[in-house]
Amino acid sequence: MYLYLKAVHIIFVVSWMAGLFYVVRLFIYHTEAKERPEAEQKILFPQFEMMQRKLFNIITTPAMVLTLLAGIVMVYLQPAWLQQSWLQVKLGFVLGLIVYHFICQNMMQQLRKGIFKFTSTQLRIWNEVATILLFAIVFLAVLKNGVDWIYGLIGLLVFSLMIMSAVKIYKYYRLKR
After folding, report:
1. What does 115-135 look like in DSSP terms, one character per residue?
2. Pseudo-torsion of CA 108, 111, 117, 120, nearest 10°?
3. Do 8 and 66 touch, CB atoms closer than 8 A?
4. Does pTM top 0.85 for this prediction?
5. DSSP secondary structure code for residue 56 in this structure
6. How far apart are the C-alpha atoms of 91 and 16, rounded to whole Å?
7. Mind listing the pLDDT tens digit for each residue in 22-35?
C-alpha cells in the first residue's frame, strides 16, 4: 500500500510543479502583454486570465491537494518518520511551496483586476523560487540523512545563485536582441 501511495504522491507532485511553473510563465506573458497595442491587449488579457484560472483551478490546486493527502497518508502509515530530521526539514520546504502556491493565486487575482505589481524579470526570478524549493525537497526525499546539512545548504545556495544569474543573463541577451 505504501509504495502505491508513494507513486501517487510523486505523480501529483509532478503535476503540481508543472502547474506552478506554467502559471508563472503565463503571468510573465500577461505582464509583457501590457506593452502591446490596446487592441491586442483586449484579446490577450482575457485569454491569459482564462488560461491561468483553468490551469490553477483544474490542475494545479487539485494536484497540490492530492499531493498533500498522499503525503499525509504516507506519514500516517510510517509515523516514526516524523522523528527523522530530514523529513522535518523537507516538510518545512513543503510548507514554503504551499505558501508559494497561495502567493501565486494572489498574483493571479491581481492580474485579473489589472494590477501589475511585478515586472516580467521579477516574475522570471519568482518562477525560479519553485525550482529551488523543488530541488531541496527532492534531494531531502532521496538522500534523507545522507547529506551533511552544511554541504546541503551551501549546495542549495550555490544552485540558487546559479539560477538567479541565469535569469539575469537571459534578460541581458533578450534585451540585446
Report:
1. ---S-HHHHHHHHHHHHHHHH
2. 80
3. yes
4. yes
5. I
6. 16
7. 999 999 999 999 99
